[in-house]
């Protein structure tokens, strides 16, 4: 669990591997993709970096995918501003990873790099790769995109808030 693996590696290693295997296993030239939350962000980052894959995607369905959390609410203040931005970095420094399952703040543990890198994007910082400074936003805005259907919860106070989802799609 204490590893150097982060968002950069998910985007440049895992997604190409997954997509190549889906293509190989299904023998399909084009396919539909469904992603939830950070998975959607990683997916769009992958497609911005590797735009040739956009031609192979018939459609994308995103569920609660946002790049940053800008909405304001008391629940967001406690869960994100205090726990995520203040306490999680301390836990990560101590443990070497984020034990999200143990603390019941996530369904999976995250690596130190993934947690800290994702945190920068959640704060609304530029959509730029933390390792090689690839500008995902510029690449995404300059490329041909597959059709995207995005869902957001009406009353979600911060996880998949419709305003944050909308803002990401407009970037």
Short description:
It is built from 6 helices and 5 strands, in the order αβαβαββααβα. It has helices at 7-26, 38-49, 74-95, 112-122, 136-142, 162-170, and strands at residues 31-36, 57-63, 97-98, 110-111, 148-151.
Strand content: 5-15%
Distance between the termini: 33 Å
Helix count, DSSP H or I runs of 4 or more residues: 6
Kindly report the spatial arrangement of strands forming the biggest sheet.
Answer: 1-2-5
- Unreliable runs, pLDDT <50, ≥5 residues? none
Largest sheet: 3 strands, parallel
* Proportion of residues in helical segments: 40-55%
How big is the Rg?
A: 16 Å
Q: Please state the overall shape, judged from the principal axes of the Cα atoms.
A: globular
Please provide the count of β strands.
5
Q: Indicate the mean pLDDT.
A: 93
Coarse structural class:
alpha/beta
> Helix and strand string, N-terminal first?
HEHEHEEHHEH
């Amino acid at each position: 669990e204490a590893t150097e693996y982060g968002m950069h590696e998910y985007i440049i290693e895992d997604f190409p591997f997954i997509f190549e295997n889906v293509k190989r296993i299904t023998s399909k030239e084009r396919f539909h993709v469904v992603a939830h939350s950070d998975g959607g962000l990683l997916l769009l980052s992958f497609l911005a970096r590797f735009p040739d894959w956009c031609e192979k995607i018939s459609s994308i369905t995103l569920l609660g995918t946002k790049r940053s959390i800008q909405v304001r609410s008391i629940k967001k203040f406690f869960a994100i501003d205090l726990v995520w931005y203040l306490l999680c970095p301390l836990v990560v420094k101590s443990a070497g990873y984020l034990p999200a399952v143990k603390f019941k703040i996530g369904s999976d543990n995250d690596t130190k790099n993934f947690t800290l890198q994702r945190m920068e994007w959640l704060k609304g910082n530029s959509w730029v790769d933390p390792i090689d400074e690839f500008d995902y936003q510029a690449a995404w805005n300059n490329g041909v995109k597959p059709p995207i259907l995005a869902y957001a919860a009406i009353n979600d106070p911060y996880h998949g808030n419709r305003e944050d989802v909308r803002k990401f799609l407009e970037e």
